[in-house]
């Protein structure tokens, strides 16, 4: 019977030869007494111990001495520091042969220095550099009429009533100039409601600042009004505060800036007794707040509570609330059409998109075709069938004077 080599068997390992290093004996290893004698007698015994020990054990007895590779790294680092200091302190000679000390330039300024010293720039690069310098240059000093926000630490306007009067006169003058230059705007139509006779008289005494002419916009007017409103918050409510906050409210309501008209409304309602608001003024302020809660935030419960608290006898507002709750687009469109006040029209316009989409959904479910004139008669003025298709996503088609809302399915013949 032949016994072959087993598949995958490993060859037998050779036994390890004994190490050539001499065995460690008590005479070769240093004891604690040897170390103590070495420290006390000046190190003579330490040299004998190191000579008698094998090389692989000598490293443990030299642990207190400096490592050779660490010493090499320390020397290389010191060389680098010396070369850097030499580079910074080296002197250069100018064209006249005079020695000139070379100054050290930090890394974050080195690129700017290279850009300034690099010759032969093109006109395009020079223009880019000029624009960059102008952008990061210090802003011009503000004029004497500019004030900061009280909420950001500016207290001059808060403690100076004369400056408050002057700033409000400037705001009125800017608003008059804006309306004169934009005669087609809605604010021009509501000019007499926003600006009173007293405001006109105060605006006439304002001196025009021709040194720093700036373009007047609605945003700039509202920004200046906000500075004045913040300055008046900590003062006692008076007639001047009433004029400022009503002016701010009426402009912001027309343009739909809720960040301005909401603080003005809350201030006027909270201080209505100190400001001695009339019934019509309270009705105006409360109506705008109710319209905001209906069409902007859709908080119907708040709108209903405010209605019964301030204007329970104004049936038109109650009908508007009901039409919004019932999704009654027809009644809501009729109320929207009857509005003659631009501020109320602007507030209701926030909910126009929702009502038009309800209008489209109802016609999608009930009609196949309808006359274009009949459909536009139901819509608010200024809105056409083309607007429903392009702006509000109505999937309708126009064919002559008819609007195809849904295609009729063809009847299959048996």
From TrEMBL:
<feature type="compositionally biased region" description="Low complexity">
    <location>
        <begin position="22"/>
        <end position="33"/>
    </location>
</feature>
<feature type="compositionally biased region" description="Basic and acidic residues">
    <location>
        <begin position="68"/>
        <end position="91"/>
    </location>
</feature>
<feature type="compositionally biased region" description="Basic residues">
    <location>
        <begin position="99"/>
        <end position="113"/>
    </location>
</feature>
<protein>
    <submittedName>
        <fullName>Uncharacterized protein</fullName>
    </submittedName>
</protein>
<feature type="region of interest" description="Disordered">
    <location>
        <begin position="1"/>
        <end position="125"/>
    </location>
</feature>
<feature type="compositionally biased region" description="Basic and acidic residues">
    <location>
        <begin position="114"/>
        <end position="124"/>
    </location>
</feature>
